[in-house]
Amino acid sequence: GLAQLHQLRGRVGRGSTASNCVLLYQPPLSANARARLTLLRESNDGFRIAEMDLKLRGAGEMLGTRQTGLLALRVADLVRDADLLPMVRELADRLLQDDHGRAELILQRWFGSARRYAQA
């Protein structure tokens, strides 16, 4: 992915001598691939590259095996709602502490057989 390419680019330029990283690709290039490479060319900010790559390729499944594509959350958008995560985490921790039985019911309702992945 772009994170690996960004990391490789950084490793090439670590010495005291000026260096260049040249990336080659085989045409034809999809619009999505072109957008991702343009992002890599225009930015040296690893966090921005990672965030934009997530927007372009999708997050995949949080509790499954797919690593790309749209995340099937029913309410939230992981990128758009990132600033809400600390508050949600706090509410989830409080629910687990105050009403563990209800938390278990919610996990079963939303995750079903994939519930075992929620233990991580």
TrEMBL record:
**Keyword Iron in record:** no
Domain ATP-dependent DNA helicase RecG, chain residue ranges per copy = 44-101
What keyword terms does UniProt attach to this protein?
ATP-binding, Helicase, Hydrolase, Nucleotide-binding
Parts forming coiled coils: none
Recorded GO molecular functions are: DNA helicase activity; hydrolase activity
Q: What is this protein called?
A: ATP-dependent DNA helicase RecG
Give the transmembrane ranges: none
Name one process (GO BP) from the record. Answer: DNA repair
InterPro entries, alphabetized: P-loop_NTPase (IPR027417), RecG/Mfd (IPR047112), RecG_dom3_C (IPR045562)
Q: Please indicate if the UniProt record lists Hydrolase as a keyword.
A: yes
